[in-house]
Structure formats: C-alpha cells, structure tokens
Amino acid sequence: MALSVHLLRPWQKLLVGSTASVMTSKWSRCSSVLSGNRVRMVEKSPNSTDPETSQGVCTIHGKQQQQATPISRAVFPPQAVFKRRFSALCGSSEVQEGALIMEKVCLNEAARMVEVEWSGGGVSRFPYVWLRDNCQCPQCFNPDSRSRLVLMSDLDVNVSPVDVTEVSQAKGSSLSVEWPDGHKSRYDWHWLKERCFSTQALSERQKDWQRKTQLWGAELAHNMPKADFPALLTDDRALYDFLVRLDSVGLVLVQNVPCDVGQVEKLANRVAFLKHTCSGKEFVVMNKTKPGSDVAYTSVKLGLHTDLNSYTYKPGVQMLHCIEQTTGEGGDNSLVDGFNAASQLKEENPDAFRILTTVKVNFRHVGMDYHKYFHLKRRNVISLNDQEDIQSISYSDQSRTSILDLPADLVQPFYDALKAFNTIMCLPRNCLSLKMAAGELIVFDNNRTLHGRSAYSPDSGTRHLQGGYMDWDEIYSRMRAIKADLGIEA
Ligand code: OGA
Ligand code: ZN
Ligand code: ZN
C-alpha cells in the first residue's frame, strides 16, 4: 500500500515549534560540495570555527575542499548533535529537539542545483527549476487547497537563483532563495528533507508505495482477521486497524453486525461511501423467484470468482453481510488468496502464468438489475504492475464469455492455463471454507480474494445476504486521514 508522503516519518515527529533567534548567513565562493564546480556558497558565521561545525564539505575562506559526503549515503546526525551545534552557532538560543540546521548552502551553477550541507553531515541537492516550481509563498501556492498556483505556461524552466541564504531559527534552518525577478522563496528544512532527492531518500519513499501483503491459505481459518462491527462504527483506531488488515490480508470477518438490511452501507459510510454499480448501491443476494441477470441470485454453486470483471474500474472491495443463513446443508463460502495461488502458479507452471498474464479474456454482464446494463471488458486474468508484481486477479467462470480473441492453436494452451490456475485455487491448502452465521459480514479485496459459494437447498429456510462494494482509493484516503489525525506512526 502506498501511504501518503505527508504523513509523519520518524525524524519528522521531532520537529515543529515557534520562531526564536534568527540568524542569516553570508555569501562567499567555494567549490561544489559534490562536483568540485565553482559555486557560490554561504557559510555559518561567525561561530563556524567550532571544529565540529567546520567539518563540512564546502571549503571556507579558500581552504582545500574536503571529501564530499556521497549524496546516496547522506544521513541525519543524532538529535543531540544538532542541538549542541545550533546552540554554539546562535549563542544562547536553543534549537528545538530534533530540528535540523543547514551548515552551508551553495549554488552549484553547473549542475543548476542548490546544495545544502546539513549540520552533522549529509548533503542534499535541490534543482533550481524544482525549487522555483515549488515556491510555497501565497502567490505561488494556495495552502488551503494545497494547490500550485505557478502554472507551467509561466514557469521559466531555465531559471537560476540570484541569491541563496540559510536562515536559522529555533525550529531549525530554512533556505531562502531570491530569483532574478526579485521574487523570494523560503523552504523549511523539514519540508526540504521530506522531498530530498538522494538515492537513500528515493528508496525510502519507494518503500512507502510498496504494499505489505501477507499471503495466506486455508490455515487462515484458525487465525481469521476479525473486527467488531460496533467498534468499527465508533472507534477510528479500530477502523484503521481493520483497514490495515484488509489491505495486507485481503479478508476480514466482521462480527456482531445487526441482522438487518443497511449495515453494509453503515460500514461503507464510516470508511467513505458505497460504490454504486449496476446491481445498485447495495444488493440482496437471495434465491430470488426471478433471479434476473445474476446467477448469485439462485441457490446453485458459484465457482471461485471476483466480482464485476466486466468493469474497467471494477470494485476494489466487496462486502457480504449474512442476515439469515440456510438451516440446511450448503451455503458455505469458499475464499482463496488469489495472490498466493497466482504465485504458486508462477512457480509451478510458468507457461500457464505467462498465458494468464498476457491473454485478454472477455468478461460480460448483461441484464436488468438497478437499471438495464451491458458491461463488457477485456482483461488479463492475472495482471502485473510495472515491477512485475501480481497486482490484480480477475477470474470468473460465470462471466467469462465464449468469445476468445485468440488464434485457434492457442485456445487449448489457454484452457490448460486456466485449469492449472483453478486447480491450484481449489487445493485444500489454499481454499478456506466459511459458513457465515447471521450477524457476520465478510469484507474482502475484490482484486485479490476469490469467493465462491456451495449450492444450498432453497427448501431449507431463507438464505439472505446483503452485498455492497467500496473502492481502494477511498479506503486508502480514509486510512491516511485517520493516520494523520491520530498521529499513528508507520
Ligand atoms: C455475490 C456472491 C456469494 C454468496 O453475490 O457476488 O458471490 O454467498 N455471493 O451468495
Ligand atoms: Zn512564490
Ligand atoms: Zn460474487
């Protein structure tokens, strides 16, 4: 999962505070901290004779340039070091706990970057054009909508600063940049650090976008992720933890749900809102006298599937709430981690995996439910992202059409691949069986967790489920918002 970059990172929680003593540094010239190019530089003055503070990478007063800290290894010194150094530089002023100061700032004209040497070690480089594009002043950026007001049509992508200075405050340094038209920009140290371009920072940020997936098989039945419905409705932390499990496991059993219609919507409204589809906002799953267009509205066995593969934006998450369960045999749900099954297929049958990741299958839903509809979509059964990780499963024998846009010679291998995937899904080690009791609700990732149902007898009492969908964009958005509100760390 990808969580927002604006959420607090460990080092950020240490910052903030009011302004106190302000000290502006002066200009001189030196070699680039990284490339040795001639650059303009500002040094800490007058107290930078402190042997610790003068160990930076820019030369001072024409002394020979010291070894530059490779940008990829730029690190933050311990907080104590900042505090001590800032005190030394600013006399009596105390830098706030964890705040960073900039030892030197340089204009590297050859690289067209501002180079910032952090007190205690580490150098960050900020391209001129990026700094100008991201000026945070009210003329350039609307803080309420967090929107850039500088438009590309007005941006000079070759702009260079005429002046750059470091401004020290109790809350840490900020970088002040003056542009040729007299415009002035100011960037706080933590804002810059959060956007650092170093190899290390880039790879740290990349991790934020990686989903923490926990694969499972039938054994999950003994350790089923569970949530309490009343808690989800009232407690944001419980809701957050539930969504984290839904994201990493792809399946959560919610308990203590009232046995009335409308609960699926209540849960969705706590997260964001229901995704409206051709089945309506919520839908009733029952053995209907007139099943209409969905075989789920009968009592027959439903093979493992993901829902609404015929949509370009198929629902990200499905909810099925058991209001009444059949008193007879059957009506059990089968649940399979499609990511796990697809990984096993990749390992055991790479040819089949390749076919299912490349051949486009037609999925169709035609009928009349909430309204008259005709959905059609061609997609891979297993889709990969640009890192070649399994990203989404779209499988349904029910809605896969008979039109196969394949040369005849490739049809048999395609069926062999589908069969191999289905066989893996159905293995007892992979397929979890769950007969929901009235008052239970399963929530699962419709891009990952396949669900099915065993047949039941329509004569053994009523089986009544209510279903609904949500989208991952709304779920992730809610998770980020709760995380920020409650100050939850990564
Ligand atoms: C569905 C479905 C399963 C069931 O409605 O999408 O798969 O248990 N229902 O009835
Ligand atoms: Zn501006
Ligand atoms: Zn279904």
UniProtKB/TrEMBL annotation:
One of its GO terms (molecular function) is metal ion binding. GO terms for cellular component: mitochondrion. One of its GO terms (biological process) is carnitine biosynthetic process. Residues 107-192 form the Gamma-butyrobetaine hydroxylase-like N-terminal domain. Residues 214-469 form the TauD/TfdA-like domain. The keyword Transmembrane helix does not apply. Gene3D superfamilies: 3.30.2020.30, Clavaminate synthase-like (3.60.130.10). SUPFAM superfamilies: Clavaminate synthase-like (SSF51197). Its cofactor is L-ascorbate; Fe(2+). InterPro entries: AlphaKG_dependent_hydroxylases (IPR050411), GBBH-like_N (IPR010376), GBBH-like_N_sf (IPR038492), TauD-like_sf (IPR042098), TauD/TfdA-like (IPR003819). Keywords: Carnitine biosynthesis, Dioxygenase, Iron, Metal-binding, Oxidoreductase. Pathway: Amine and polyamine biosynthesis; carnitine biosynthesis. Belongs to the gamma-BBH/TMLD family. This is BBOX1 protein.
